[in-house]
Amino acid sequence: QVQLVESGGGLVQAGGSLRLSCAASGRIFGMNVMGWYRQAPGKQRELVATITGGGSTDYADSAKGRFTISRDNAKNTVYLQMNSLKPEDTAVYYCSARVFDTLTMITNQYWGQGTQVTVSS
Question: Of all residues in the chain, what percent carry a pLDDT higher than 90?
Fold first, then answer.
C-alpha cells in the first residue's frame, strides 16, 4: 500500500501564499507521476498540477503563472507553492501518486486525505 500525507493548508487572504506538502510512504518503488488536484463544494475534482519523476510539469490553466509544483525524490515528497491566491482557489486539495506495481504490472493511483485551502476576499 501507499500512504500520502498532506500538510500546509489553511486560511489565507486573497493575494496571499500557501505551500502544500505531501509525503509518500509504503510501496512506492514504482512511483512516477505525483500531483495535486482540488475539489470545491459542489464541483468535480480537477487537476491542478502534476510532476514526473524526471521533473516534467503540467499545470491547469487556472494554476499557470501562480502555482509551482516541485518534488524532492530523496524525500518522496511533492510540494505545491501557491501564490496570488484568489477566493476561487478555495477547495480541498488532494495529493495524488501513480505507482507501478511490479507484482500486478498495473499502475495504481493513490490519494491523500485532502487538506483544506480557504482564501478570503
Answer: 92
Q: Which residues contact residue 103 at a Cβ distance below 8 angstroms, ignoring those fewer than 6 apart?
A: none
> Percent of the chain having pLDDT more than 70?
100
Q: Is pLDDT of 31 > 90?
A: no
Q: What share of the chain is helix, strand, coil (3-state, %, to 5)?
A: 0, 60, 40
Using CA atoms, how far apart are residues 71 and 28, in angstroms rounded to an integer?
Answer: 14
Residue 52 C-alpha cell reads as 514526473
The grid cell for 9 is 493548508
CA distances from 103 to 3, 110, 114 (A): 18, 17, 28
